[in-house]
Amino acid sequence: MKNIIYNKWLIIISIILFSFIVLINDIIFYSSSEPIKANQKFLFDANIVNLGLDLQGGKEFLLAPKIESWLIGEFKNYNNIKAKKDLFEALENFKSNHSKNNLEELNIDTLAHYLQYTKNKSTISDLYNGKTIQDIKTSLKKSLESNTNIIRNRIDEKGVVEPSVRVVGSRISVEIPGKQNIDRLEEIITSSAKLEFNKMVKGMNLGPEDWNSNIIRAISKWPDLKNLTTKKTALFKDGSDLNVIYLKKSDFLKFKDLIQLKGADPWFNNYKFLYIPPENSYYKNSIINFAELFENGDKLLCIVLRKPILTGDSVNSANASTDNELMGDYIINLEFDNKKGNKNKSASEVWATFTEKNIGKIVTVSLDDNILTSPVIRTKIPDGMCQISGFETLNEAQYVAMQLRHGKLNLPLKIDYSKNSGPELGKQMIKLGIIAFIVGISFVIIFIIIFYKKSGLIASSALLLNILFMGAILSILGATLTLPGIAGFILTVGIAVDANVIIFERIKEEIQKGIPPLSAIESGYNRAFITIIDANITTLLTAFILYSLGSGPIKGFAVTLIAGIICSMFTAIYITRTIFDTIYQSKIPKKLSI
Q: Considering Cα of 340, then 345, then 347, then 349, what sign does the dihedral take?
């Protein structure tokens, strides 16, 4: 019996010490007058309990949709030449007038208005295959709402940061509490993450005369592009070459819009242009004259590609890892889904067919029109797997993989407004919250000691340990504590007290039946166990549902509730029973103090 009790105390003391070690980082961080980085590591713990925006301020963003880019992207009626020209004309007229009146914003009604003054007087229905203005507005609203979930999941994959992401009018509000160092935050909330696999068209596939004649013909139709710099050739180490266009930054966005509209020339329906970033490690190592092509720094390189074979919508999973064959290189392992799509083929089957028919050819992988890599197809890939290589750091690979897991934004976004909100209101709320918490816990402890005497003192000790353990769990997770989270914290303290009350009342019932004290304790715990487990499992299931379906503060409340339930069961059942066994193992009491 003694050995069992010693082992129980060993477990309890180990958990208590571990909890204190975990919380030391939090104590140092919040008590220090000197600025300390939140991720400064103490022993093995690098996380702390963060305070929510309502408690400590944080970052706020207001994201506005890029309506023009979305309208262009939604345009699919390529064969209607008149509609294409009218769309471009209406957008140009709007931008021309908008420069004089900055208060006017582009929307569906505005586009319909400007279409009335175009050459062919096309309507919204002509542009969007019979859809009405209301249909387009509904589609825009759905895209905006779906973006909120994508952004929220990108920021908070673990469900512990608790960002607030919601639609406000025609914009998206994003609030991120504290001074959390979320890498590339602005990119996370605005990048579209449009992944595409394209078959590359190299110089040998498209003759110089064909290239030049089509480019010159297209550019001549658009005065804004008359100063576009000439075509150059990238020379690869394997002896092949690649036709590219040399662009200034000021020309690039105009050129992209021209290609998206497909209005300049039918020739562009079969090709598109993607951007090769100057820092792209794959091309740095593959192109002989790479430095020459980027000698001025302010030039962009566009490459001719075919329409996408597959997109990110077909990706089932994406995980970053180290390439075992190439030491120091980092990769993303992709798996395509097996759902039947167009022509009753899954993405895995499309990929297998494509790789089988294009052995020795190059497939280009791009994200948001930025080329990531262009591997040569060596063999058929029948299992729906793919690797994206060329990342110089693991963080870069993880960042891209995170974007791919949560999907692309259905509506392009830009930051319309941002600010860092201060913690002035939060400090007052924290002070009042701490006072309320201490007063509340004190009253509970005093009441339970008066009502249950020494047994109440045991329950109070377990209650304080419950608070310690909960704090440690939240710190390990790096959770963000908001007002709803505090509510969950207090709720679980009540649950812990309730469990002890059930146990003590069961023990009282046994004593009233004339059962000896030690037998009454054992019987009371056994009878109360099922009731406590039943109640807590029910609450735990509810908390898991809230975590799975909820978001932001709701998810944070669920995390706190789950942690509290687990801790309360451990302290109320395991720790108090161990204390009772320790006190009464050698000296059998005539009467229990309960």
A: positive
Mean pLDDT of the residues in the chain: 79
CA distance linking residue 270 with residue 306, whole number of Å:
6
The pLDDT score that the predictor gives to residue 221 is: 62
Q: Hunting for tokens 């009454």 — which residue is that? A: 520
Q: Give me 388's structure tokens.
A: 């994206």
pLDDT for the residue 389: 77
Question: What residue type is 521 in one-letter code?
Answer: I
DSSP designation for 341: -
pLDDT greater than 80 at residue 295 = no
Long-range interactions of 316-323: CB distance < 8 A, separation 24+? 316/384, 317/405, 318/400, 318/401, 318/404, 318/405, 319/401, 320/391, 320/394, 320/397, 320/398, 320/400, 320/401, 321/397, 322/394, 323/387, 323/389
In this predicted model, what pLDDT tens digit does every residue of 182-231 receive, in sequence order?
A: 667 888 888 888 889 988 766 444 544 555 566 666 666 666 655 655 55
Burial class (CB in 10 A: 0-12, 13-18, 19+), 569: buried
Q: Hey, what amino acid is at 10?
A: L
Asked if the 195-406 domain carries CATH number 3.40.50.10240, the reply is: no
- Write down the domain spans for the chain: 1-19+41-55+423-586, 66-185, 195-406
Q: 3-class DSSP state for residue 204? A: coil
Mean pLDDT of 309-323: 87
Cα(273)–Cα(247) distance, rounded to whole angstroms?
12
Share of residues in the chain with pLDDT > 90 (%): 14
Q: Does domain 1-19+41-55+423-586 have CATH number 1.20.1640.10?
A: yes
φ, ψ (nearest 5 deg) of residue 424: -55, -50
What is the distance between the alpha carbons of residues 427 and 237, in angstroms, rounded to a whole number? 61
